[in-house]
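Table S2 (text version). Query chain:
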Amino acid sequence: MSDRDILPSWAKPSHYVVSLHDIEFGGNFSYQGTATITVNLQKNDGFNDLVLNAYQLKLHSAELKTDATHEVKDFSYDEKRQRVTLDFGKTIQHTGDAVLTVKFEGTINNIMAGFYRSKYKPKGEVPASVAKDDEFHYMFSTQFESCDARRAFPCFDEPNLKATFDVDLEIPEDQTALSNMPEKEVKQSSRKGFKTVYFETTPIMSTYLLAWAIGDFEYVEAFTRRKYNGKNLPVRVYTTRGLKEQGRFALDQCHQIVDYFSDVFQIDYPLPKVDLLAVHEFSHGAMENWGLITYRTTAVLFDEKTSADSYRNRVAYVVAHELAHQWFGNLVTMDWWSELWLNEGFATWVGWFATDHLHPDWNIWGQFVAESTQTAFQLDGLRLSHPIEVPVYDGLEVDQIFDHISYLKGSSVIRMLSAHLGEKVFLQGVADYLKAHKYSNATTNDLWSALSKASGKDVNNFMDPWIRKIGFPVVTVAEEPGQISVQQQRFLLSGDVKPEEDETVWWIPLGLRTGSDAASASIHKTEALTQKKDTIREIDESFYQINKDLTGFYRTNYPPERLAKLGEARHGMSIQDKVGLIGDAYATAVGGYGATPGLLALIENFQDESEYIIWSQIFTSLGSVRSVFSGTEDIRDGLKKFHLQLVTPAVEKVGWDFAPNDGFLTGQLRSALLLSGGLVGHEATVKEALRRFDLYMSGEDKSAVHPSLRKAIFSIAVKERGESAFKAVQNEYLTTSSIDGREICLQSMGRVQTPELAQEFLKFIFSDKVAMQDKHSGTIALANNSQVRYEVWRFIRDHWDSHVHPSLSGNLVVLERFLRFGLNKFADRSVADEIKKFFADKDTRGFDKGLDVVDDTIRVLDGYRARDEGRVREWLGGRGYL
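Corresponding structure-token output:
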């Protein structure tokens, strides 16, 4: 049996003409289509049928032109494998090219997959032809990755069956059509009031990168500074009418990054245009369709006056990530979905790399290790994690590996390799790889070969375990006079590694520095740990530190006294070092390698910290500890006191007002500290937040709430005031015109404190007032709120058949994300048992891995709580917090 379920290999497409016409702009949203496919056939003994991918399409007729014309007599659909077999009713003897023409019918769905419609409320006058219902207007666009091109037209829908594409779309005269390539010509249609837009032929590419969109669009435009084939390329951000000015920030990032990547990859951007399109309903953050990149609105639009500053960072990074794919993914594509990490891991790393290039003052790598690396550790510390490169049997399995392992572990491991080889050598190897495989497909080994050649090192040898083995190591340090011993073993958050799970020996770059103090320490000559255990001499006991800047993807477990000393020496360390120190102390406590008092004693040192990224890591780690112990009353109250005392000096120093010269990170620090201080009960903060909330909500003074402080102020008000504030924020959600306003309101409403309000909020989330793409936002906030966390599970259990499954199962990516993030915060194995029992008799294909993560996570946290409860109580008591 093959390790993958793919189409018969003797039929390969080389060119498609996809024509869509008779689109219904309302009613059933159906359309008629013709797909004309040039196929190379190599079956010497003849064939009587052809197999293609098609899903939720109705095929009307088909014919194959060889030297004669052969009509298809019968279509048989395999719904489960999303295929259709075209039966000619006779044997055809033909090798070489032939032309297959299929006439079909499809539907523009509303589940954010395939060719779909998004609802929105327009600004300004809208042409009468735009599809609408009572409350909303609609735009149409596509999302084909991983395997949803087959929902839009019959095709050979696998990443290595590349072809060129011609697209033409019949649309109303007063609307705009977009596709991967520029418009070639427009012809009058026989249908009154319609025109047909023809696009230039695409380069050779995978089906999942094809895209088109139809709507009432407008755009802002800029040009690249570099010339491509003698011309400055047009770069545009398209939006529905009335929003284009909010595309200016993304536009400004975009043209600079296209030029930057053209230099870095040593290959000019290969298409004649770059379009970015804001889509009102979107399952992911964005999608890298070649030349027509689609985005969730909050990942591409930014309004200097009304957006929270955190979204500036998001837009810059997501724009860079998707542009990286234009080379890495689109020009060179993974051979099969098992190597998805090649696309996503690299685009994530190089997306941050480009953002750092444009915004050196944002401390991008500090942010990367606090967000991406720590999140990857969290998922990869579970027993049932998966390797970065994971076997995929068929395309339908792939959606669940678009996860933190492919993106975040993948990018962290690439950062580790780049740091080891040196950035210049690493990027040269990447450029060589892209040149060698452009317009075709490649494997992980092809990348390693190019990097080995560029660096003169055997990259495959030391990277292989990182890519193909599950999990990552913890390096445990033991001290002796003048030397340390280091030992590696697989890290599990449950702390119970079995011998058969601990056979991998990783190549571990030690990044070890030592000296009389942190400021003057220098890098030690021992580069890497390449065996299970080693002793390293010439260590100055005054100061040493492992994994400088957290470039290595592993946890470090120091002796408790050393952890305390490193806390005292923190001023001589980088932001990445401090993030690593706090993150490692938390994780080793959960896994039982260390203990929670070590983490608490460490972060107690950080009262005078002034960096946003460090506070962000403290809030994440301390928030997780508080969440785990939230069911034990005395510990819960003691940790809250500890948190309040820790944060008070910084909260009182940061203030409420934004100065014109405040940097990006200062604003982020203010938002984070006020939110944290207010929620933990800092009196002056609560009082001021409520004062500003009342001025804003009454309409008396809308400037009382700075856009970047909406989340803090709304959240504090909902927590303190209950129903009246909840209703006010709900009304803000329904009326806000700011792009990020809805996400912020949903996050804030999740701070409710009673089961009744939590249930009311969940019913609101599952009403048609909240778009499918946003249903997880409010739910994550409820799951993070220990006061009402159980209500999320109760709602899922009691309303699975009436609300949850019907609303989300059309798009399993969305359902899986909703369950994973909605249920993974419990620290009580009896809840894990309830969840397991509930889903035991249900068909969970497409979200089963998410449920496994939930189960494993809850059991890990339950074990941690039971093990450390006494220790935490003792520490809090000894420090006077109980």
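Notes on Table S2: The mean pLDDT is 96. The longest strand covers residues 30-41.
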